[in-house]
Amino acid sequence: MERTPSLDTLNKVGQEVRLKGWVRLVRDHGKVMFVDIRDYSGVVQVVFVAGMLSDEQVALIKGLHGEDVVEIIGTAQQRKPGTENADMPTGTVEVFGKELTVLQKAAELPFDMGGKDLNLELPTLLDNRSLTLRHPKVQAVFKVQEIIVDSFRNALKEKGFTEFIAPALVPLPTEGGAEVFKVNYFDKTVYLGQSPQFYKQIMVGVFERAFTVGKVYRAEPSVTTRHLTEYLSLDAEFGFIENYEEIMDMAEHVISRIFDDLNEKGAEYLKLYQASVPKFSKPIPRIKLSEAKEVIFNETGRDIRSEPDLDPQGERDIYAWAQKEYGSELIFVTHYPTVKRPFYTYPDPENPEETLSFDLIGRGVEWVTGGRRINEYGQLLESAKKWGNEPKDLEIYLQAFKYGMPPEGGFALGVERITMNVLGLKNVREASAFPRDMERVDIRLS
Amino acid sequence: MERTPSLDTLNKVGQEVRLKGWVRLVRDHGKVMFVDIRDYSGVVQVVFVAGMLSDEQVALIKGLHGEDVVEIIGTAQQRKPGTENADMPTGTVEVFGKELTVLQKAAELPFDMGGKDLNLELPTLLDNRSLTLRHPKVQAVFKVQEIIVDSFRNALKEKGFTEFIAPALVPLPTEGGAEVFKVNYFDKTVYLGQSPQFYKQIMVGVFERAFTVGKVYRAEPSVTTRHLTEYLSLDAEFGFIENYEEIMDMAEHVISRIFDDLNEKGAEYLKLYQASVPKFSKPIPRIKLSEAKEVIFNETGRDIRSEPDLDPQGERDIYAWAQKEYGSELIFVTHYPTVKRPFYTYPDPENPEETLSFDLIGRGVEWVTGGRRINEYGQLLESAKKWGNEPKDLEIYLQAFKYGMPPEGGFALGVERITMNVLGLKNVREASAFPRDMERVDIRLS
Question: Where on this chain does ATP bind (chains A, B) (predicted)?
Answer without folding.
Answer: 218-220, 226-228, 366, 414-417
